[in-house]
Amino acid sequence: MRFTITHPMHSHPYNPELASGSGIATVAGAAEKAGFHGFGFTDHPAPSQRWLDAGGHDALDPFAALGFAAAHTTTLRLIPNVVVLPYRNPFVVAKSGMTLDLLSGGRFTLAVGVGYLKKEFAALGVDYDERAELFEEALAVIRAVWTGDDITYEGKHFTARGITAHPRPTSQPHPPIWIGGNTVAARKRVAEHGDGWCPFAAPAGLARTAGTAVIDSVDALASGIDDLRRRCEAAAKDPTAIDITFTNFEGGSPAADDFNADAYLAGVEKLAALGVTWLQVGLPGDSVSHAVESIDRFGSLVIDVI
């Protein structure tokens, strides 16, 4: 099992310490020292005030911030959580991802999602109703650009002729592509285009808000994993080669006084048995020092034990 964190800017307003270069370097460095395997940022270039007031969060640009984190670490994988792919031209995403992978020595994973905030789509000039088509075309473009030369692509949204984008990524055949979302459609995309699946814990209320399927238990996750395996096998893809990320329902938050490491470790065993390969660990966002304290605690109570 591998563990990853998202830089804890998960509120509005945010603690300014977390949006500083020193704050990012401190959190990323502490995570690497504690034995974490991945580090990322969220993606919200134009959130609405209404969404922020309702519990949304501020964000840095994930590509720029991951580049800064890469320069202050040596082993952490750079895993955005997640890039909303329809917001951007896929040739630009391919170039940004390639650059991160090359400069970090092959440490980039492109984790992507379809997105759900209508006002953010509108602000960026992207048709919300076409987001699924944009997403699937973009996946095909990115993989082609990362692996071939003299690329020609004819799609509804993107057309290109004779494109060669060098330098190539360090990772071969290309950086892993993880696909977010809890739906059947997300798992279909993993089977066709992806190297990993990123579902997230979503009770009914959150699922409605995010426009996704409910995953509120280990049993619900297991059902989704079974479906993913069937789809991978039908596509002649080895399901055991697919990374699966999730969170642990057991043990509580590592930032809480009542964090139960034994219960957490028991939950890790259950998830590993299902095929989960990465766990997303939540951090407090009230200060850099509290985040680092939680990282250190988790490292000693969980990662060092495993």
From TrEMBL:
InterPro entries: Lucif-like_OxRdtase_Rv2161c (IPR019921), Luciferase-like_dom (IPR011251), Luciferase-like_sf (IPR036661), SsuD_RutA_monooxygenase (IPR050172). Residues 1-211 form the Luciferase-like domain. Keywords: Flavoprotein, FMN, Monooxygenase, Oxidoreductase. Gene3D superfamilies: Luciferase-like domain. One of its GO terms (biological process) is alkanesulfonate catabolic process. The keyword S-adenosyl-L-methionine does not apply. GO terms for molecular function: alkanesulfonate monooxygenase activity. This is LLM class F420-dependent oxidoreductase. It comes from Mycobacterium asiaticum.
